[in-house]
Write a structure and sequence with these properties.
2 helices; 26% strand; three-stranded antiparallel sheet; alpha+beta; five-stranded antiparallel sheet
Length: 218
């Protein structure tokens, strides 16, 4: 494992390496494909010379050419499989997972010598671009009718006293929490300096024009 939770990473940077016997099998398949290609090349040259001397019919040349093309495709497929896994040049059974983007490691669920499989379900590591973030506000059901996508929102957090961040509503959920009687409201916030961090507590205010009729004493 080459990075830790909270590390900044760049696109293409190695995150962790996985050892697997399947990689050795892929290398063996490529070597076998290359052997077949060498044999097909020699056979094609021999058949071309024999057909040129009219010792063999033309259909033998077509068969040799087809065998050569199939061998080429097999080598190309084997190379593509190894390239897709980003196999380390010096390791027979290891491939490296690289970061798909520049960002921050916001989730890490992998340890050294941990066994992993495709059936695990949960991602082993998550890299997020924190130049913009979401704030999720739990709003009571009766306060949501005036909230619409595109509306404004102001966010403050105890971790940054005195700072106010302005965002816009992306979504008001259609399904509420039956226990709390709230609806999640998603707000998009620009975060170019990465001051807002994932999973911190925040308070949200919505500057809306209420449609409710209010009566006050004279």
């Amino acid at each position: 494992v080459m990075v830790e939770l909270g590390d900044s990473v760049r696109a293409g940077q190695p995150l962790f390496a996985v050892s697997s016997p399947a990689v050795a099998e892929l290398r063996t398949d490529r070597e076998q494909a290359m052997v077949e290609l060498d044999a097909a090349t020699v056979n094609l040259q021999r058949v071309e010379a024999t057909v040129a001397s009219r010792a063999l019919p033309m259909k033998e040349l077509q068969t040799a050419q087809q065998r050569y093309k199939n061998a080429q495709l097999a080598v190309d497929l084997a190379n593509r499989k190894l390239a897709a896994f980003k196999v380390s040049p010096g390791a027979d059974h290891e491939f490296v997972i690289q970061s798909p983007r520049t960002g921050v490691v916001v989730s890490k669920d992998i340890l050294v010598n941990q066994q992993v499989s495709a059936e695990g379900g949960a991602p082993l590591m998550v890299v997020a671009d924190l130049s913009s973030v979401w704030a999720i506000a739990d709003v009571f059901e009766g306060q949501t009718p005036d909230l619409k996508p595109g509306g404004g929102a102001e966010v403050t957090t105890p971790s940054l006293p005195g700072a106010t961040f302005t965002g816009r509503i992306l979504m008001v959920a259609s399904v509420g929490d039956p226990g709390r009687h709230t609806l999640p409201v998603r707000i998009l916030l620009p975060n170019p300096d990465r001051r807002l961090r994932p999973n911190v507590y925040a308070r949200v205010r919505f500057p809306v024009q209420s449609s409710a009729q209010i009566e006050i004493p004279a």
